[in-house]
Amino acid sequence: MLKKGTAALLLVLLALLAVLYVGVWTRGSRQHAVPPLQPLAVNADAAAARLGQAVRLQTVSSAEDADLNADEFQRLHALLAQQFPQVHAQLEREAVNGLSLLYTWPGSDPDAAPILLLAHQDVVPVAPGTESDWEQPPYSGAVRDGYIWGRGAWDDKGNLLAQLEAVEMLLVAGWQPERSVYLAYGADEEVGGLRGAALVAELLGQRGVRPAFVIDEGLLVLQGVVPGVRSPTALVGVAEKGYASVRLVVRAQPGHSSMPPPVGSSAIALLSRALTQLEDHPMPARLDGVAGAMFETLAPEMQGLSRLVLSNLWLFGPLVKRQLEASPGTNAALRTTTALAVVQAGNKDNVLPGRAQAIINFRLAPDDSLDDVLEHVRTVVARVVPAEQFALEVLPGAREASAVARTDTPQFDVLSRTIREVFPDAVVAPGLMVAGTDSVHYGAISKHIYKFSPIRASSGDLARFHGTNERLSVAGYADAIRFYHRLIQQLSAAKMAP
Ligand SMILES: [Zn+2]
């Protein structure tokens, strides 16, 4: 016979297991069941060749020099006009601030709120010295072995030309939208979008345009990247992190190296302590918010233990959090990150400097404001540096995190269904975009901004992004065209308010 204590323990364990399984059972799949869609016939080889031509133009943008490569951007504009004749015959095209493009396709229903598709024309440079590591020269635009190769094939000329391919096909078929469709293509996304997207957004705002739906580059259809989920996972960015660089200046009595002050009181020692404190005490990680919504959506799609654990965050939350904090990618999705970026102090070995400074870069989670970050830094630094000996300054270029787009809307519904129509094996979940996009500039004119690139990627592909051997598969490119083709039609017919 079991001892009384053992029996009681077993009973408790059984009860706990039952509770955990209730957590699993009550969380059914949130995926839309959509009937399979007959894949649209796309001439993928011809489309790939057109994308290759666009990749050949070296539209590298520069933060300092607005005119850098202006001729390459102009050549891209001319190329697009030649490649997409119906788009250029039937849509209005405006150049905004010289190099950014805005296309307007008027809808038949003037009362229906418009939609806005975004992409960018510019690319990041190829890191000097890595040119010979490319399997195809970085601006070749070569179509080889089933891929379109070159800088920009994926980021972001793939999205840009896929949208134009879709619109061209719709126009050729004689289809016209009910709601107006805007296409906006910035020329300086990679350096912040202030000369492009920011001005296009301002222009649309002045014209009273309030899009009911905005889509921009973003998260991807990830294969084998999200642990525990066997299906490809289409993550839709519903928010974008903010950005702040804070300068911390610490002052102390300057002196001579021959007679250093008491331990820990020099400017460099104080700054070092402050930086260690800041790194040891980041802003809190949270499992609610966007990351929580992602796990709630994905938990029912997982198998075995992962599913059990993620369906019972009330119990396993702290454990899951610790696990996710251990990897930089998932850590960045949970919190405002702290990165020690620049340190400056001293210039001579026999002089103790009176001043030491550092720049710390923060990427703000949607729940933290710039004020919260500054307050956090002040509190943490004050633990080790007397208040009168340090000063903080937020450097220009800081911005709050974007608003979080809702997922209980017809907009998100149409987007999720369209993803599952074109990528039938994928599950869809909201996610947080940790990098910047042009869409952040459109927050003043729309609440419904989604950051999603209809492109499949495995973990091995992610290093190609801004890296070496950037490429896009021809088959994947055809799917991207199918996605935009379907999305534009589905959005046009949907009932949506701005
Ligand atoms: Zn991009």
CATH superfamily of the largest domain: Zn peptidases
**How many domains comprise the coordinates?**
2
Derived structural class? alpha+beta
Low-confidence stretches: none
Mean pLDDT: 94
CATH architecture of the largest domain: 3-Layer(aba) Sandwich
Number of strands: 17
Largest sheet: 8 strands, mixed
Helix content: 25-40%
What's the assembly state of these chains?
single chain
Number of helices: 15
- Distinct ligands, ions and cofactors found in the model: zinc ion
- According to CATH, what is the topology of the largest domain? Aminopeptidase
Radius of gyration: 26 Å
Rounded to the nearest angstrom, the distance between the terminal CA atoms is: 69 Å
Shape: globular
Strand content: 15-25%
CATH class of the largest domain: Alpha Beta
Overview of the structural elements:
The protein has 498 residues and is of the alpha+beta class. The chain folds into two domains: 44-239 and 402-493, 3-Layer(aba) Sandwich (Aminopeptidase), CATH 3.40.630; 240-394, Alpha-Beta Plaits. Helices cover 36% and strands 21% of the residues. The chain has helices at 4-25, 44-55, 70-83, 85-90, 157-172, 197-206, 267-280, 289-298, 304-310, 313-325, 328-334, 370-382, 410-422, 459-462, 474-493; strands spanning 92-96, 100-105, 115-120, 143-144, 147-149, 181-186, 213-223, 233-240, 242-251, 255-256, 337-345, 351-352, 355-364, 390-394, 427-433, 449-458, 471-473. The strands form four sheets. Strands 1, 2, 3, 6, 7, 8, 15 and 16 form an eight-stranded mixed beta sheet that branches. Strands 11-13-9-14 form a four-stranded antiparallel beta sheet. β4 (143-144) and β5 form a beta hairpin. α2 (44-55) crosses α5 (157-172) and α5 (157-172) packs across α15. It is globular. The mean pLDDT is 94. It binds zinc ion. Zinc ion binds next to loops.
